[in-house]
């Protein structure tokens, strides 16, 4: 179920963003250009775009950046925000209500629903009954489409292009939903090469890897960091998703996939390090001041990309 220029995922004209499946390169460029425009608009003009609209945020899993950037984006566009943080405890989920029912009901109050949930795939089906746009703000170990959009936006802003780049994704590729969505979006760009760097038990799920390859993404397993890092344009580092591990054995070898001054020295001068954050110990803070460390700029870009997505799905340009 998707959104954007394609008709996929439309129900009575409602466009959702619950998965990156079905997105087009044009959708990505439209949002990136809109994000660029919105970041230059005066505050008063911005606040007219979604004036009087109500955005609901429902977070069934913890979040700092995603929720606050969505809420800030909505407020800056002039919308009101209602919501439930820790929705597992503080909503009718506690009484066993399904996501589909939540979408129906909250969709009668709000003009869009931003939702983070622990189930990887229920959101796609549940969104099909929603009368307003549903935006996936992270679904279990499955997908995190708006993070992928801000990741690609960051690559584009930092390096001036997306096509033809060599991107290494490192860390927990099994449970890391941001990587799943990012790779599914990168496959839309010609000439992208992806190298996978991960502990033995935390590789990309096999069906996902097969599908991405079948759809034309050049995907390869990486060797030693000393061989791979000097050849990358983007190093996308991720946190081990400890809360999702099924056994502590899955952590074996994880300490090799950290970035410190030694790894930094291996990267080309033009390369960029991205990370969806939060970081734990996989990037040494000593790296933060290097101009190649783009993760704090990336988090800021999230505000503008989320503004663009809300604005587009809700017709902030007056549609
Ligand atoms: C990510 C997430 O929630 O998947 N965080 C985020 O949205 N910025 C990454 C993570 O939790 O590791």
Give a verbal description of the structure.
- This protein is of the alpha/beta class.
- It has 2 domains: 7-144 and 300-313, 3-Layer(aba) Sandwich (Rossmann fold), CATH 3.40.50; 146-298, Rossmann fold.
- 36% of the residues lie in helices and 14% in strands.
- It is built from 12 helices and 9 strands.
- It has helices at residues 25-38, 43-46, 65-76, 87-90, 99-109, 122-127, 145-159, 177-186, 206-214, 225-228, 261-266, 295-314; strands spanning 54-59, 80-84, 112-117, 134-139, 166-170, 193-197, 218-221, 234-237, 272-274.
- The strands form 2 sheets. The protein has a 5-stranded parallel β-sheet with strand order 7-6-5-8-9, covered by helices on one side. It has a 4-stranded parallel β-sheet with strand order 2-1-3-4, with helices on both faces.
- Strand 3 (112-117), helix 6 and strand 4 (134-139) form a beta-alpha-beta unit.
- The longest helix is centred in the C-terminal third of the chain and has 20 residues, at 295-314.
- It is globular, with a radius of gyration of 19 Å.
- It starts with 24 loop residues before the first helix and ends in a 5-residue tail after the last helix.
- The site of N-carbamoyl-L-aspartate (NCD) has 10 residues, from helix 3 and helix 8.
């Amino acid at each position: 179920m998707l959104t954007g220029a394609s008709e996929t995922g439309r129900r009575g004209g409602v466009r959702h963003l619950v998965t990156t499946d079905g997105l087009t390169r044009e959708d990505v460029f439209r949002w990136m250009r809109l994000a660029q425009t919105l970041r230059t608009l005066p505050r008063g003009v911005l606040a007219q775009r979604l004036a009087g609209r109500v955005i609901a945020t429902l977070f069934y899993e913890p979040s700092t950046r995603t929720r606050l950037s969505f809420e800030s984006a909505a407020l800056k566009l002039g919308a009101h925000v209602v919501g439930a943080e820790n929705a597992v405890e503080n909503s009718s989920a506690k009484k066993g209500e399904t996501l589909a029912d939540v979408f129906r009901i909250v969709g009668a109050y709000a003009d869009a629903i931003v939702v983070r949930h622990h189930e990887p795939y229920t959101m796609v089906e549940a969104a099909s009954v929603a009368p307003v746009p549903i935006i996936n703000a992270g679904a279990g170990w499955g997908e995190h489409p708006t993070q992928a959009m801000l990741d690609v936006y960051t690559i584009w802003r930092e390096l001036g292009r997306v096509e033809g780049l060599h991107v290494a994704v490192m860390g927990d590729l099994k449970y890391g939903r941001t990587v799943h969505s990012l790779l599914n979006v990168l496959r839309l760009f010609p000439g992208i090469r992806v190298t996978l760097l991960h502990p033995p038990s935390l590789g990309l799920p096999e069906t996902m890897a097969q599908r991405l390859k079948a759809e034309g993404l050049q995907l390869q397993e990486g060797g030693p960091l000393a061989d791979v890092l000097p050849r990358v344009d983007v190093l996308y580092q991720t946190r081990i998703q400890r809360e999702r591990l099924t056994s502590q054995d899955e952590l074996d070898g994880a300490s090799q996939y950290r970035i410190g001054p030694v790894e930094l020295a291996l990267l080309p001068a033009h390369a960029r390090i991205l990370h969806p954050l939060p970081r734990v110990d996989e990037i040494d803070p000593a790296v933060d001041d290097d101009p190649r460390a783009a993760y704090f700029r990336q988090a800021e870009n999230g505000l503008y990309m989320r503004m663009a997505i809300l604005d587009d799905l809700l017709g902030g340009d007056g549609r």
